């Protein structure tokens, strides 16, 4: 497994994130859920993206194993998945010297879930 990781790193050493000189390292978080989003089996999908400045540093897209009865339930669980990723990324950013001093703010569009949270 270690050889596989080293080969991957060697093959992608020219990849990177490009930041402008005056870019601020603001940690932005966006997420959404798609009720019945999979056309094959009508299962719901969740997705999230995390940016540091203008560079995308993490993203995810998952098909939920169970079908939610209500969109609010699905989107509430989607927020939980995204928050787990946010906490992990905040620890990583703190370890590399970019601590996050502001409150964690998720950009989200479902008003029912926002009231529930």
Considering the chains and any ligands shown, give keywords for the structure.
117 residues, Nucleotidyltransferase, domain 5, 3 helices, alpha+beta, 3 strands, three-stranded antiparallel β-sheet, single chain
Topology:
Blueprint: H1 2-11, E1 27-34, E2 45-52, E3 55-63, H2 71-95, H3 111-116
Antiparallel strand pairs: 1-2, 2-3
Q: What do you see in this structure?
A:
This protein is an alpha+beta fold. The chain has one domain (23-116): Ribonuclease H-like superfamily/Ribonuclease H (Nucleotidyltransferase, domain 5). The protein is built from 3 helices and 3 strands. It has helices at residues 2-11, 71-95, 111-116; strands at 27-34, 45-52, 55-63. The radius of gyration is 17 Å and the shape is globular.
Q: In the CATH hierarchy, what is the architecture at level 2?
A: 2-Layer Sandwich
Query: In angstroms, what is the radius of gyration?
Result: 17 Å
- What does the oligomeric state look like here? single chain
Please report the distance between the alpha carbons of the first and last residues. 40 Å
Q: List segments where confidence is low: pLDDT < 50 over at least 5 consecutive residues.
A: none
Largest sheet, strands/sense/barrel: 3 strands, antiparallel
Strand line-up across the major sheet? 1-2-3
CATH superfamily: Ribonuclease H-like superfamily/Ribonuclease H
Listing every helix as H and every strand as E from the N terminus to the C terminus, the arrangement reads: HEEEHH
Task: Give the mean pLDDT.
Answer: 76
Q: Given the helix and strand composition, which structural class is it?
A: alpha+beta
Quickly count the helices: 3
CATH topology: Nucleotidyltransferase, domain 5
Number of folding domains? 1
Strand content: 15-25%
The residue fraction in helices comes out at 25-40%
- The first-level CATH class name: Alpha Beta
